[in-house]
Amino acid sequence: MDPAPSPLENPESNGYVDSKSDLETETPRPLDLPSPTTEYFLAAVYPATLLLASTFYLLSPSPATSESYFSKKGNLINVIFVKYGWFWTTFVFLMHVSRLRASSKAKALLRWLLATAWWIIVTQWFLGPPLMDRAFTLSGGVCETLHQVNQAGPDMLDMNKPQVWLTSADCKFHGGRWAGGHDLSGHVFLLTHASLFLWSEFLPVFRVEGIMGGGIESTAVLGLLAMWWWMLLMTGIYFHTWREKATGYLIGAVQWALLYVWALRNVPKARFALGVPGV
């Protein structure tokens, strides 16, 4: 009588294992993507947070509210963490990945590369200016500068003749500010995009390990997710218009929805190439 095939020989066996001790083995368990209910809940948490923030702002239009510590862009959490948000997201993600099997690590890093590429396209570079700067200028936005450096030296500019710079970084470098146009909220984009990515990668492992068995890796991920949620709430209260926050959320959720909600569930080739979150 032939022996039963091992899980490694079973082509239908893919997914995660059920204890930390199994992390040292290569015994996979059947595929188990998050339920649609979980995905819908994740998709709803962040716009609900923005709605809560807007409600708080409307009900508390007092000077005390506007003078909150978190209403200042120089608050330490913003300066140290949010401004370098993708670095910190990557840092805790790599902590999380360090406990996975070698085969799962490689696929997890591929999914991280896709998330990073979307962050770069939206905020850093997209065949020139990033997507958010292109949207701003295409919707009529310009850079208003106080000084212009030319061959004769710095000159005062007529503020009625705003200068056009390709990127927000160029504008800030020349001492100007964005004016007009639709200024998609970069904070809302980053915090939404990073949070949905981390939740999707972390939840399958968290379901296996539980609250008590996660170790420092789980603590780091959950701590950063809590901070990202809080800063999203603060951004929703003190900064940007409702439309700018709404588009920031939508752009932040689109890559997550395409990959985790649709492709990994419905496209076998994508699931084969990129794997699914788990240990």
UniProtKB/TrEMBL annotation:
Active site: 187, 240
Disordered: annotated segments: 1-34
Gene Ontology biological process terms from the UniProt entry: lipid droplet formation; phospholipid biosynthetic process
Protein's membrane topology: Multi-pass membrane protein
Main location: endoplasmic reticulum
Key words, A-Z: Endoplasmic reticulum, Hydrolase, Lipid biosynthesis, Lipid metabolism, Membrane, Phospholipid biosynthesis, Phospholipid metabolism, Transmembrane, Transmembrane helix
EC number in record: 3.6.1.-
GO CC term (a single one): endoplasmic reticulum membrane
Stated role: Fatty acyl-coenzyme A (CoA) diphosphatase that hydrolyzes fatty acyl-CoA to yield acyl-4'-phosphopantetheine and adenosine 3',5'-bisphosphate. Preferentially hydrolyzes unsaturated long-chain acyl-CoA substrates in the endoplasmic reticulum (ER) lumen. This catalytic activity is required for maintaining ER structure and for lipid droplets (LDs) biogenesis, which are lipid storage organelles involved in maintaining lipid and energy homeostasis. May directly bind to diacylglycerol (DAGs) and triacylglycerol, which is also important for LD biogenesis.
Top-level taxon in the UniProt lineage: Eukaryota
A Pfam family per the record: FIT
Keyword match Hydrolase: yes
Membrane-traversing stretches: 40-59, 79-97, 109-127, 188-208, 220-240, 246-264
Species classification: Eukaryota, Fungi, Dikarya, Ascomycota, Pezizomycotina
Entry's family note: Belongs to the FIT family. Fungal FIT2B/SCS3 subfamily.
Catalytic EC class: hydrolase
Subcellular location: Endoplasmic reticulum membrane
Name under which the protein is recorded: Acyl-coenzyme A diphosphatase SCS3
Compositional bias annotation for Basic and acidic residues: 19-29
The keyword Endoplasmic reticulum appears for this protein: yes
Organism for this UniProt entry: Sphaerosporella brunnea
Gene Ontology molecular functions: coenzyme A diphosphatase activity
